[in-house]
From TrEMBL:
PROSITE patterns: HTH_CROC1 (PS50943). It comes from Lysobacter arvi. SUPFAM superfamilies: lambda repressor-like DNA-binding domains. Residues 7-62 form the HTH cro/C1-type domain. This is Helix-turn-helix transcriptional regulator. Coiled coil: none annotated.
Length: 135
């Protein structure tokens, strides 16, 4: 099975259209089409990782064809997202994490900056050099 066929199989197994997978990964539908085409381009490692996470398949299987397609029970338990675990008790914090994780990759940094700016306006405190990623 080719890498392109594995990507298509993972997407279909997850019940996603090319457009839905593209939106979840943060790329256009046409990029997913290229990844699945017989002579198409291979996605970057970061995109391949996102595809594996979104579709629930083993990264190694998706990248190389080795191993099992599906996650083992232990791997599935180890990969439970923090937002889905009991660690997040505040419903608003959970909503924020779920929305952030659903956002396209290219939108995540601007979203964090907007939330930080809103927090500064509400509290009157600015970020310190220790908390700012630009410092």
């Amino acid at each position: 099975m080719t890498p392109q066929q594995r990507i298509r199989l993972a997407r279909r197994h997850a019940g996603l259209s090319q457009a839905a997978l593209g939106a979840a990964v943060g790329v256009q539908r046409s990029a997913v089409g290229h990844w699945e085409a017989a002579r198409g381009k291979f996605p970057s490692v970061s995109h391949l990782r996102e595809i594996a996470l979104i579709t629930g398949v083993q990264f190694e299987w998706l990248a190389t064809g080795r191993g099992n397609m599906g996650l083992s029970a232990d791997t599935a338990l180890d990969s439970v997202a923090a937002a889905d675990a009991i660690l997040v008790e505040d419903p608003l914090e959970l909503r924020l994490l779920v929305a952030f994780r659903a956002a396209p990759t290219r939108s995540k940094a601007p979203l964090v900056e907007v939330v930080e700016q809103l927090a500064e306006l509400r509290t009157g405190r600015t970020r310190t050099a220790a908390t700012s990623p630009r410092a």
